[in-house]
Design a protein that fits this description.
By secondary structure, this protein is of the alpha/beta class. The chain is 31% helix and 27% strand.
């Protein structure tokens, strides 16, 4: 008769326990299922060991055996303090996240017959956006029959790009997409 009492003993199962996200992301100590492992690290002699020998080495140093590369043959393990290892992983991820930059795109909308005052107002805002490091996506929106003035829209966008050449460079020349003519400017590196 089979005992259904689940007291956390995984030895009756034929498959390894599932890896969970977060804290239990790596197999540690007795949860490692390979027969042989490759040991790496500062405080051990590197090489291939049976799982029992690797666990003994970790126990002698009062540390954990952590499977860091399960897909390698044999799996790569490190003798390390597991909590310290998790802390270092979190720290590394946080640093990578801080180094990655988010691209901000600011949009500026014109009509095909925008007057000089509105143009200068939007030009001033675009200069500020480019100085902050944001990309500027300027477009002329054509309503109804104003699509007949698409040449005026293109001239307006080219003038806009020319007036901003000290602050940014053209990433995409004026392009008509449906009822919009779009130009994209990126900030110049300082």
């Amino acid at each position: 008769m089979e005992n259904n009492n689940d007291s956390g003993n995984n030895s009756q199962r034929n498959f390894p326990p599932k890896k969970e996200s977060g804290k239990d992301q790596y197999f540690v100590n007795e949860r490692i299922r390979a027969r042989e492992v490759r040991l790496v690290g500062d405080n051990v002699e590197q090489g291939i060991y049976s799982l029992r020998d690797a666990l003994q080495i970790a126990e002698q140093q009062e540390l954990d055996l952590v499977e860091i590369s399960p897909n390698a043959v044999p799996p790569v393990c490190r003798v390390i303090d597991y909590q310290k290892f998790l802390y270092q992983q979190k720290k590394r991820l946080k640093e990578q996240k801080a180094k990655s930059t988010k691209v901000v795109i600011k949009e500026i909308r014109f009509g095909p017959q925008t007057d000089d005052h509105d143009y200068n107002f939007k030009l001033k805002h675009a200069k500020g956006f480019l100085e902050e490091g944001a990309k500027v996506k300027a477009y002329v929106f054509f309503k109804g029959r104003s699509i007949l003035f698409k040449e005026q829209g293109e001239v307006l966008l080219l003038r806009f790009a020319n007036d901003l050449e000290d602050y940014g460079k053209v990433e995409q020349m004026p392009l008509l997409e449906g009822k919009r003519m779009i130009i994209v400017l990126t900030p110049k590196k300082k």
